[in-house]
Automatic annotation (TrEMBL):
The organism's place on the tree of life at top rank: Bacteria
Family assignment from sequence similarity: Belongs to the succinate dehydrogenase/fumarate reductase iron-sulfur protein family.
Name the record gives this protein: Succinate dehydrogenase/fumarate reductase iron-sulfur subunit
Cofactor(s) it depends on: [3Fe-4S] cluster; [2Fe-2S] cluster
Gene3D superfamilies assigned: 3.10.20.30, Alpha-helical ferredoxin (1.10.1060.10)
Ranges for domain 4Fe-4S ferredoxin-type: 150-180
Domain 2Fe-2S ferredoxin-type: 18-103
Organism the protein comes from: Hymenobacter aranciens
Species classification: Bacteria, Pseudomonadati, Bacteroidota, Cytophagia, Cytophagales
Pfam families: Fer2_3 (PF13085), Fer4_8 (PF13183)
PROSITE patterns reported for this sequence: 2FE2S_FER_1, 2FE2S_FER_2, 4FE4S_FER_2
PANTHER family the record matches: SUCCINATE DEHYDROGENASE (PTHR11921:SF41), SUCCINATE DEHYDROGENASE IRON-SULFUR PROTEIN (PTHR11921)
């Protein structure tokens, strides 16, 4: 396939960015989207130009690093798929593809398509953990957990922290991400010790980072590549209200 790429180029977070048009030729439909960008960067290097910066790591849909906004959608046109698992067969010969970074105040652009998502790390540091020493797998399995509860906790734990929910939300809200982390631990017996302080601290840090408010549009869940449910946001709201009603923290 021969394609036209409209790529966001921005030298650093303080510079003014712009869309730059590139042409790529002989792209195999079996390539992943990131492999197509590799081809573009090889061409740019051969021409003595600066390659396009973009985030990636595992390229297996696990790490959540491949955060790209493709033709106005988080991770591109295929539902339930990360950018690294999106294949070029989803596009047609002659297509024009617009590629941008996540657009959110809390996700400043480092360079080109690479954004700083350390705000998510700070939210996790604020409370997304347990102090219980669960040891190895045998120790962790000593506490019986009903299967329906274990399944719900597992489904919440599948969040890969890619930030697609933030990019898809008109308010750049991180509620789906935070709710998945809160729900995962609130459902399990090992997470009960910090249950109240966890939700208070994580929501407070989310606000500090500058994420917007949730208005229940649902675009976050619609674009989530691993299918995190909006039910987690409802659980987060219940956890937060219960914590504030009984909290010693009056702030």
């Amino acid at each position: 396939m021969n394609l036209t790429l409209n790529v966001w180029r921005q030298p650093n977070r303080d510079a003014q960015g712009q869309i730059v048009e590139y042409k790529v030729k002989d792209i195999s439909p079996d390539m992943s989207f990131l492999e197509m960008l590799d081809v573009l960067n090889e061409d740019l290097l051969h021409q003595g130009q600066d390659p396009v910066a973009f985030d990636h790591d595992c390229r297996e849909g696990i790490c959540g690093s491949c955060d790209l906004f493709i033709n106005g959608r988080s991770h591109g046109p295929e539902k339930g798929t990360t950018t690294c698992q999106l294949h070029m067969r989803k596009f047609s010969d002659g297509d024009t593809i617009t590629i941008e970074p996540w657009r959110a105040h809390a996700f400043p652009v480092n360079k080109d398509l690479s954004v700083d998502r350390s705000a998510f790390d700070r939210i996790i540091q604020a409370g997304g953990y347990v102090n219980v020493n669960t040891g190895g797998a045998p120790d962790g399995n000593e506490i019986p957990i009903p299967k329906d509860i274990a399944d719900r906790a597992f489904e919440a734990a599948t969040c890969i922290g890619c930030g697609a929910c933030v990019a898809a939300c008109k308010n750049a809200s991180a509620m789906l991400f935070v709710s998945a982390k809160v729900s995962q631990l609130a459902l399990l017996p090992q997470g009960q010790v910090e249950r109240k302080t966890r939700v208070e601290n994580m929501v407070a840090q989310m606000d500090i980072e500058g994420f917007g408010a949730c208005t229940n549009i649902g675009s976050c869940a619609a674009e989530c590549p691993v299918g995190i449910s909006l039910e987690n946001i409802a659980m987060l709201n219940r956890e937060f209200l219960a914590a504030k009603a009984t909290s010693n923290n009056l702030a």
